Amino acid sequence: MTEQTATLEECVNTEIKGETWEVVHYLAMALKADNEGMTEVAQTLRNIAMDEAAHGSRFKYLAGNIGDLKEEIEKMLSGEEQAYEGKHEGVKTAEAAGQKQVASTLHTAAHDEARHASMLRNLLKRYF
């Protein structure tokens, strides 16, 4: 049986997925550290998460996955608007299940998505 070598595209996509997972995991660890009163541990983990985000973004950029900037911002704006709506639906589901913390987190995240959408709209108006 011969071993199949991954293509460069597969390698890059694997790196992007791995780096993305690491960002979320390090940030979740930082939240736990904050909640346990370990501020320095939390900040270190957040710094590592940002390094991992930088790695993933470089791979995505070098792979040519970022097209016309205006079109990319418009696409992200649409996604932020959809995420706002989706998270509000999630709030209802979490509340119905009696999961107040999940509902609260979804509510906060929904408002963050709305803020992100506003920021992107402002960029489009100002620069494009």
Outline the secondary-structure elements:
Layout: H1 8-35, H2 39-62, H3 69-96, H4 100-127
Helix pairs in contact: 1-2, 3-4
Low-confidence parts, pLDDT < 50 over ≥5 residues? Answer: none
Intertermini distance: 54 Å
- SSE arrangement, N to C: HHHH
The general outline is globular
Please summarize the sheet with the most strands: none
Query: Which structural class matches the secondary elements?
Result: mainly alpha
Give the beta-strand count: 0
Beta-strand portion reads under 5%
Count, helices: 4
The mean pLDDT is 96
What is the CA-based Rg, rounded?
18 Å
Number of domains: 2
Helical coverage, percent range: over 70%
Summary keywords:
single chain, Ferritin, 2 domains, 4 helices, 128 residues, globular
